[in-house]
Amino acid sequence: MTVSTAPGHFETLTADQEARLKDVWTHLLKFWGVPVTPAASVARSATSASVASKASKASEHSEKSGKKKRFGMFRKGHKKTKSTDHDGLSLTTTRTRESVEETYNSKLIHDALKDLEPQQIADNFWNMLRTDTPDNLLLRFVRARKWDVDKSLAMFANTLHWRLKEANVDQILWDGDRIPFENKEDGFILQMQLNKAYFRGVDKAGRPIVVIRPRLHNAKKQTPKDLEKYTLLVIEIMRLALQEPSDSASIIFDMTGFTMANMDYGPVNFMIGIFEAHYPESLGKLFIHKAPWIFPPIWSVVKNLLDPVVASKIVFTKSIKDLAEHVDTKYISADLGGEDDYQPEWIEPNPEDDKLLDDTVTRDTIRAERAEIVKEYIEATVNWIEAKTAEESHKWKVEKRKVGVKLAENYIKLDPYIRTKNNFDRAGCVNLQAPLPIDF
């Protein structure tokens, strides 16, 4: 299946959209202590003239500590490096560290970032990437905020803070279900055992499909925290299933057998809230399939909780014919009238599945490679922002894309050395080594 790149992505940006993305990157790089001087002025309507914040203090402390410490893992960003020429235009920067030091102002930090720790947030950003590229990750937030730079940064900063300080999302992914299983987190494990959600096939737009079966839910069988943790694991596994240019997933709510005993507004509110606030542009379509006669009153409540953009992605389907307009029947369960005989099952965790986690030498080698790729990406981004001509900007944009793909490929190598397997892996629902769609 050929999936084309949608408008508003890095490969399809208009000139104005690209300028706004450069603005976003400029604020982030300055926050991280990376000197950058845009070729054109960056709008700073929400920028503090004097930031009495952690970010500002961090910059002042770093200046006292000397340039080497100040730039941390990004200190190679402006050294001359060899790079491939494209159409005769060199990608090697001639800008010196001294020239950018003269123009760098550590107080020009965006307000949305002022209460965050620069190094922690930088680490969290690069760790947040899976098989997506940095630009297309950022563009999710920019598109969600209608290309408003200030609002995009505020949304992105809020998500980074949430991931790092509140939800501990990465740890949930790294632990999978083996750690909770060994820790006897029975409420969470019950969700995995019941297979309330599973991954299967793609829709006709090439988006991975998550099937959710509300009939299996009983609000008394687990705590809200158990459900929230399970929801976050499912969404993070969904992110692993995405491979550009497909960068959103579709959800099928299989309402077969649903009764009022299965209704639980808490998890619904949680899922809606995090999709809107922290996983923007991640939902392709949401199919509510075979909703029973008792569902309309529930829907009248739920629809008022939805952002209009999310609401516009909801499709009600009643029959296999309706659903087959959006999903090939080979990816639709036989239980729903499709051709797929697959039945999800619970496979108990086995420590042998995670033996690569003990190979810290290989893990650290791949992480070191990743750090070097990040430096390459930072350098390409700075040169793209500082480009004085459209031609030069385009050449660095091409380079950014190449390095971004290297970063995604690096994550695929790193994944088995840092992430504990879960039932979605054991059931073969997610395979980072295989292109979409995964054949069954």
From TrEMBL:
<feature type="domain" description="CRAL-TRIO">
    <location>
        <begin position="187"/>
        <end position="344"/>
    </location>
</feature>
<dbReference type="InterPro" id="IPR011074">
    <property type="entry name" value="CRAL/TRIO_N_dom"/>
</dbReference>
<protein>
    <submittedName>
        <fullName>Phosphatidylinositol transfer protein CSR1</fullName>
    </submittedName>
</protein>
<feature type="compositionally biased region" description="Basic residues">
    <location>
        <begin position="66"/>
        <end position="81"/>
    </location>
</feature>
<dbReference type="InterPro" id="IPR036273">
    <property type="entry name" value="CRAL/TRIO_N_dom_sf"/>
</dbReference>
<dbReference type="InterPro" id="IPR001251">
    <property type="entry name" value="CRAL-TRIO_dom"/>
</dbReference>
<dbReference type="InterPro" id="IPR052432">
    <property type="entry name" value="PITP/CRAL-TRIO"/>
</dbReference>
<feature type="region of interest" description="Disordered">
    <location>
        <begin position="49"/>
        <end position="98"/>
    </location>
</feature>
<dbReference type="Pfam" id="PF03765">
    <property type="entry name" value="CRAL_TRIO_N"/>
</dbReference>
<dbReference type="InterPro" id="IPR036865">
    <property type="entry name" value="CRAL-TRIO_dom_sf"/>
</dbReference>
<dbReference type="Pfam" id="PF00650">
    <property type="entry name" value="CRAL_TRIO"/>
</dbReference>
